[in-house]
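Q: Structure tokens for this one, please.
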Amino acid sequence: MEVGIIGLGKMGENMGVRLLRHGHTVYGADLSVDSRTLAQEQGIEATDSVANLAAKFTQSPRVFWLMVPAGKVTASVVQEVKALAKPGDVVVDGGNSNYKESIRHAQDLTEVGVHFLDCGTSGGVWGLENGYCLMVGGTPEAFAAVEPLFTALAPENGYAHVGPVGAGHFVKMIHNGIEYGLLEAYAEGFEMLHAAKEFDLDLHQVTALWNRGSVVRSWILELAERMYEHDQDFLDLEDDVADNGTGRWTVQESLDRAVPLPVISLALQMRFRSRQDQSYALRAIAALRNQFGGHAVVSKK
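A: Here is the predicted structure, written as tokens:
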């Protein structure tokens, strides 16, 4: 089956390589010369524009798979594809788009007879070898047309048609919100272990132990075991943790739907805290404690 991947960053390139390994024909498009070069070295026939990509297909319907940043970039690429697409073609958005935007993209493409699937994609840099978990929203007809690609990209039972357009990115958004909470819980536990200097704990040993039969074992904990094998203090790292938008959208949905998400909400707030060189709020608390209780404050030297 032919597929054109728009966006040949690490995820897009790796997905293309996995599809090649399963016998599919992969074309690619990216503005970056370096990304195109790397993709071509892996066997992906790459070009610099959506128009050139569209011209490479020899079969129809054509499948355009987007792996570009959410928001304005995705919207722009959807419009480029819309101008070139033919009735029956399928657009798959495999990025982390907001599900509401995905619904709008589908409505827009339907005007010219083009199908749209929103495909929440999880697997990161390990997906090339292990496969990607794919959460797909769209019509059953569009899903069936692209299913051979899903079968190639995912591990066994690792993809599903979860509902109509928007459902795929909604499920992925909540997936990422849960990820925020998991990471925060593990990190807080690791910090407490690290702080217990009297025990001189080996965090690689502890995480390896927990991964063998404990109720907190997980793939994230397996990655932590791998991480602690090489470093336990992270002195070379800044404590600045980014958020990619999905965590914010998850928390906003909790407000809109009046569904309590206290752990995920706090995990998002902690990422904001990580970006502050100095916390005004904590300095204010210290000053206020000094005012009402005479508690000591630490002055800058």
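A few notes: The chain is about 50% helix and 15% strand. The beta strands are 2-6, 25-29, 45-47, 63-66, 90-93, 115-122, 133-137, 159-163.
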